[in-house]
Design a protein that fits this description.
- The protein is of the alpha+beta class and about 240 residues long.
- Bound molecules: uracil (URA).
- Uracil (URA) binds next to helix 5.
- The site of uracil (URA) has 8 residues, from helix 5.
Length: about 240
Amino acid sequence: MALVRLDKFLANMGVGTRSEVKNLIKSKKITIDDVIVTSPDMKIDLEHNIVKANGIVVSYIEYEYYMLNKPAGVISATEDKHCSTIIDLIKDSNKKDLFPVGRLDKDTEGLLLITNDGALAHDLLSPKKHIPKTYYAKVAGHMDAAVINAFKEGVDIGEDKPTLPAELKILNSNEVSEIELTIYEGKFHQVKRMFEAVGSKVLYLKRISMGNLQLDNSLELGEYRALTLDELKTLKEG
Ligand code: URA
């Protein structure tokens, strides 16, 4: 097995963010074969070295989980001949099998989970599970209780059935209003089509949560980090 950088390995295994990992190393909390390490760019051999964080063995895990703050202009695909994809943004991984869990439109920003764990992706995307997804949006025109009620009841977006009940929170109502919308399904362009159904238009769209997973506000557009073990646990439990 190839040698990997210690800080990258620890962050990928969910011990902490890259900067948290650097701090752990600085404060002598990381050992390789029971010898304290002080350099984050130390290389380790995953088959032979035993890495411990705070005295606890950090095992290599097969699956990788990243939270990406997707910028507009990249597509939610693994490869594309013409456009850059979200996978092009993931520089840390050697894995060839990463994929996005669901899709965001090219012009949508925000939380995208990227993994190679097919079973978790299947669970999160299953139409039966009704995993909540919350979006922040700027939309054209005033928003009021009528729109809240329409979304609560379900609107016709041209599918066989109306949309499932969704929760609209109006952050401010103006010529351009700011809202948060939580939906429990994932139809193509769903949020945009829901606002069209009530005579409005989405001008800016960003996903801020999926299931129990919240977008880390410290991630700039295009930045990503491995999920922490806590995040992964609550995501799986949710
Ligand atoms: N709904 C949309 O319309 N677009 C997205 O990218 C996600 C949800």
